[in-house]
Amino acid sequence: MEIMDLIAAQREDLATILGGLPEQTWGSPTLCELWRIREVVAHMTMPFRYSGEEFMAELGESGGDFTALSNRLAARDAAALSPAELTETIRVNVRHPWEPPGGGLAGALSHDVIHGLDITVPLGAGFTVPEERLRAVLPPSPDEMSVKFFGTDLDGIELRATDMDWTFGTGAPLTGAAQDLLLVICGRKLPTGHLDGEQSERFTAG
User: Fold this and answer.
1) Would the pTM count as exceeding 0.90?
2) How far apart are CA 45 and CA 70, in angstroms?
3) Which percentage of the chain shows pLDDT scores above 70?
4) Coil, helix or strand for 67?
5) Which residues make beta-bridge pairs with 175?
6) What is d(CA 3, CA 195) in angstroms, rounded to the nearest whole number?
7) Is the separation of the CB atoms in 138 and 182 below 8 Å?
8) Residue 87: pLDDT band by 50, 70, 90 thresholds?
9) H or E, element range at 148
C-alpha cells in the first residue's frame, strides 16, 4: 500500500473508535503524561486546524518552544472543541498531506499510530495496528533518528515481537506485541501484562 493509504486507514480506524466512545470517556488518561483523550486528539488534529502562518504565530507566543506550544494548544483546544468536533476533524482529514518537519509522510503515519495507541492501549480497546502500518514505522536499528528523538534508554535490551518477525537491539530479551514494543521505544509506560522479560518492570506502569 502507498503511505497515504496507510495514513488514511489509520485515521479512519481511530475516528471509528473515537466515535463510539461515551463523552465521559474522553476524560480518561492516556499514555501521554498529563494528557487525557481530549488533549491527545486535540494535539493530533492541530496540523489540520492551523495554517502554517497561524502555527508560526502560536509558536512565537510560546517562545519557540514546541513542547510548550503543544501543551498549551492541546489544553486550549480540548476545552474549546467537543468530542464530536474532534472526531469529525480526523474523519474529514484522513488524507490530509501534513508532514512533521523532516519526517515526511512516514513521520505523519508514525505520529498517528503512536498517539492512537496512546489512547487505545490504556482503554483496553483491543485495537491491533495492522502489520503493514507497523512495518512502515518500526525502526530497523537503534541508530534511527526517530529512536534518538525519544531518548529511551534501551542499552542491553533486545526487543522481540511475539506477533511478527521483528527484533531491535541486543541484550536481555523483552518480548511483547510489536505495537507495544514500539511504545517502549517511545518511552511509554505500559499497563501490566503487556510485556515479558526480566526488564519488563522498567517499562510497566506502577
Assistant:
1) yes
2) 11
3) 100
4) helix
5) 160, 196
6) 29
7) yes
8) very high
9) helix 145-150
